[in-house]
Amino acid sequence: MKNKRILKKIVALALVALMAVFTLSACQSADTNSDNLSGSRESKTIIVTVIAKDKTEKVFNIETDKETLGDALFEEGLVIKEEHKSGFYSYIDGVRADYTLDKCWWSFTKGGETVMVGANDLKIADGDKFEITNTPA
Length: 137
Hints:
Helix content: 40-55%
Number of domains: 2
């Protein structure tokens, strides 16, 4: 009888240890999968052409893993932090275009077509081409 109790305890301890190993293994697998999902953003290259008031152009080839144009511009240093947070851009590449001050604004187009959302909401894909034009009133 005493041997059966000891055997039951050993089997119970072995089962608990086995469950702990499986649980730990599953948690590590989930962490690895989570890291792969969050760290596996695809790198993409976009072309951004900034067109000044005098029609001179500056072309930026931006390689990024960001999802939106606003984030890619911020990562590249073309927009400032405060404006990136708000999504309203007066400064692009250090040049101001502010309608209330100088009757100009930055017009965003993609492949020559006016975009209908703000840069912070504009999803980007590899090979996209954007134009940001200092547009006078």
